[in-house]
Amino acid sequence: MSILIIEAFYGGSHQQLVDLLQEELDSCVLYTLPAKKWHWRARTAALSFSQSIPSSEHYSKNKQKNYKRKNEREIRTTYTTFLLPNGKKRTLFASSVLNLAELAALRPDLGKLKKILYFHENQLVYPVKKYQERDFQYGYNQILSCLVADVVVFNSIFNMESFLTSIGKFLKLIPDHRPKDLESIIRPKCQVIYFPIRFPDVSREHDKDPESFFKVLMHLKNLGLNFHVSVLGETFTDVPDIFSEAKKALGSSVLHWGYLPCKEDYFRVLCMADVVISTAKHEFFGVAMLEAVYCGCYPLCPKDLVYPEIFPAEYLYSTPEQLSKRLQSFCKRPDIIRKHLYKGEVAPFSWAALHGKFRSLLTTEPREDL
């Protein structure tokens, strides 16, 4: 097989997915842009890729090139042939950060490939203070991308349904000459394939609402309760002030703080923890939560977003007060959670369980009517 993978935001779960596909599937071609300035990537990546991806007559099999751009992450590229001897189409796989409609128009040769669009998140329900403040162009880009894609894949049912059912309301922001019936056009192309996680061999952003998370922890600290916390994650351009304030306030309770580039070290910290907490206001899957659960952590998640789809009701809370009470009880009786056996399942989200679906998705020809 030959698969052209394009990732306009090569970092976090986006990087994790395309790296996994490239490692596990044959003849993958990966083109990326670094994971920074998300809004610029969403708006301009198609034009950049239209110039950086060689035209079909320049492809040669198994020619690999590694290079770096100044002040950017490594961009890995493998050139290959995209036409089978019998003339069958090859596959283009991209995340919804990319404006696929623009790329297909700028590069008709790439537009002829089987085009698969993968949604890690969607911009139609991204949290804003007022609906009128929503930047129309990013959601509109994703709708256009769906219209030109052959297959549209979401990482959860919540992600898919929140996107599809919001199209009509979203398009009402257009003052006149609104397009019609787009949900009914896009829905037949859609399916859900959960994000595949390569779980380790172990023995046991503003949209994540860090303010609520740290307020609960500082409340526990003020109550004199004994606990330790590890705050892990990659730091991008803008870091909310609450992070530095919380680190200082929590003091000796902090075990680890910041990004751990080594995956083994990251999982080692997870295995040391008893509880993993999410206070997210914007989550369509939650890779880190499932990784922590696999490593033995007791999850506490909002009773909202994608979480009820993945975690049993026992692990969900409705208010910050409920979260605080649960954590207070755990601080007083840590033996309760250390003896606890997780009542949900993580195996369905593993690469072992999902690799067949991805292989079928990336190798099957699109229907002629798409």
Short description:
Helices cover 39% and strands 17% of the residues.
Structure description:
The protein is an alpha/beta fold and 370 residues long. It has two domains: 3-196 and 351-363, 3-Layer(aba) Sandwich (Rossmann fold), CATH 3.40.50; 206-349, Glycogen Phosphorylase B (Rossmann fold, 3-Layer(aba) Sandwich). Helix content is 39%, strand content 17%. The protein is built from 16 helices and 13 strands. It has helices at residues 12-24, 38-52, 100-106, 108-111, 136-148, 157-164, 167-171, 182-186, 210-222, 241-250, 263-272, 287-294, 307-310, 320-332, 334-338, 351-363, and strands at 3-10, 28-34, 63-68, 74-79, 91-95, 114-119, 151-154, 190-192, 229-232, 254-258, 275-277, 298-302, 316-317. It has a six-stranded parallel β-sheet, sandwiched between helices. The longest helix has 15 residues, at 38-52. It is globular. The two termini are 21 Å apart. The relative contact order is 0.11. The model is unreliable at 57-88 (pLDDT under 50).
Inertia-based shape: globular
Instruction: Record the strand order, biggest sheet.
Output: 2-1-5-6-7-8
Major pleated sheet: 6 strands, parallel
The total strand number stands at 13
H and E order: EHEHEEEHHEHEHHHEHEHEHEHEHEHHH
Provide the residue-averaged pLDDT: 83
Return Rg in Å. 22 Å
Q: Which percent bin holds the helix content?
A: 25-40%
Specify the CATH class of the largest domain: Alpha Beta
CATH architecture of the largest domain: 3-Layer(aba) Sandwich
The CA-CA distance between the termini, in Å, is 21 Å
Structural class assignment: alpha/beta
* Portion in beta strands: 15-25%
CATH topology of the largest domain: Rossmann fold
